[in-house]
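S1.2 Input.
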Amino acid sequence: MERAPLVIFREATVMNGEMPVVYGLDMTILPGELVYIVGRVGTGKTSIIRTMMAENRLDGGTGEVCGYPLHKLRRRDIPYLRRRLGVVFQDFQLLMDRSVKDNLAFVLRATGWRDRARIDRRISEVLKSVGMETKAHRMPHQLSGGEQQRIAIARALLNSPDLLIADEPTGNLDEETAEGILQLLRRINIENNTAIVMVTHNKSIVQRYPGRVFVCEGERCHEIGDGDIVRMDDEDF
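S1.3 Output.
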């Protein structure tokens, strides 16, 4: 049975504010795929994932994410699109004035969950899935960077997303901690059949955890093969 794509861009012009940064983007992402977006600073990587989240508008071409057409998306449909997505940021973006449990409960209530027992049950499930089941009552400042990122991943999984978007998820972590986060993301990708789109500057990640790779350069973004990755210089990431 053919799988319906989660992400489709056709000849899309990606914007950063009012400035076009990527022209003619063609990209299709299927359920369960691991996709990297790499390239030098300022080449449009983050603008592409912000477009997937409907934070940036398309200025030309077409785009569709989780069945929602970005080029004609109604404002009232944006929250429904975002419920189909999970997002993990480099700087965690946890609410520092409340516990881990309250961070997660806030997201669930904001996305329509009302039953307290169901909320508690879902929080327990996602914390267990990222190995943080004993940390529910900790405050973010009581956690290490790696633990905070695991909580951020748990937050991204709350609504069982079809697509997980990760923007430099290991950028603020030491090598050993980063490896644990990458293994966790890969497990989620395989076991849940969750598609992952990851922006990274780290060539070794791409080589250790192979997936499809798109390179942003010269106001374009195109897919490359394994041999092209080997030949790329580190600074091109």
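S1.4 Remarks. The CA atoms of residues 83 and 203 lie 31 Å apart.
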